Amino acid sequence: MPRRHLRMTGAADCSLGAALRALRTELDLPGAFPPEVLAEAARAPDLSAHEDATDLPFLTIDPPGSTDLDQAMHLERRRDGRGYRVHYAIADVAAFLRPGGALDAEAHRRVTTLYFPDDRIPLHPPVLSEGAASLLPGETRPAALWRIDLDGDGRAVRADVTRALVRSRAKLDYAGVQRQLDTGAAEEPLALLRDIGRLREEQEVARGGISLNVPEQEIVQQGGSYGLVYRATLPAEGWNAQISLLTGMAAARLMADTGTGILRTLPIAPDGAVARLRRSAHALHVDWPHHVPYAEVVRSLDPTRSDHAAFLQECTTLLRGAGYTAFDDGELPDPAVHAAVADLYTHCTAPLRRLVDRYASELCLAATAGKEPPAWVREALPALPKEMAEGTRRAGTVERACVDLVEAALLEGRVGELFDAYVVDVQERDPATGTVHLRDPAIVGRIEGGTAPLPLGERLRVRLTRAGPASKTVLFAPA
Fold it and tell me: Fewest C-beta atoms under 10 Å: which of 45, 218, 253, 456?
């Protein structure tokens, strides 16, 4: 798992921007799309099988500047007064692809969109992912349209999905949505996002699930240089994420009922990983009594506090081991549940950015229609988990390399300086080597070179021994 989600704000022309561009070349990542792929992406799709749902006033909620819009929603109260209905439109990428064609093959080579702080390498050509398939406002677009009914407590009682033409009426961002909700300016259907989001959060607590609202780090210009600052997620981002989680759980249930599917799975974290996280909590002075469950501790954290933000970063270590598991024999795999979701779950809401989601949508469309999955979907299932694992590893390599480069660049010219840090991890085989978390700036780095065992969970004065874009990493030694 990446330690941080990084985003560059107004610093693309600085030396760091040049270093990030060089990193993209160094990692030997996918480049320009071949001409035959671009030609196929530009073809008009056959939409004759899509029902007309353009009367529903959909809206999208994404970071500012986003143009690859996978999801649009319309929320309403059920007419029987017994709860809510979630209309969730997911970009219908399959409508534009010919199975086995050039565009399909290129997507299998890329697997995921790769994100850099200042740019991205897309899964699909921009003419598709930011154009014809993106759920942009004012445009009629093909979608896999989910209709999920909830009872008054937010529990899903019915779900189906069909192909439909939809039209978004508004492109909103998280800050604007939060402002409308906080001031009371939001009207239905937007106002229902808070109501449904909170109910789904309560359902998450009841089933033992946990959402990690990991703060995003922004690379911001500070005078003639730049720095790292934490940006805590807004409540509206969590409520929006709950709609996506709801859909992924509904999709997994449909697959389970039909006996064919691909799940996103995560085993329960081993005791050793939890013990390590407890040590990190102690090091960062996060209160974690032994009788209190991990999920309850996470929910008590304030991501606007630097120590809590740092601990949330460490919490992502418990998500290691997540993967994809396909099944096509009527029997659910073991394990089948995603430990953090605490239920069956699949990825189906980001097909513009993730290969597997396109296949999940097709499986669910077939299940709703009472039909067998398309042959091209079934044939791809056995290889998908390995493809996704390789693509996810590549994305993780990119994200880790970006974090290391940003931290090294931030501390360039400060080799030899002393910093206050906390020892958050110590290697068992070499207790003089481990990991420290600086108080300011919020940087995590390797420490080595001492003669005595590191004091796990204690404050330590450290000296920076290596930094700078050339080294692409930081290294500390005990002072």
Answer: 45
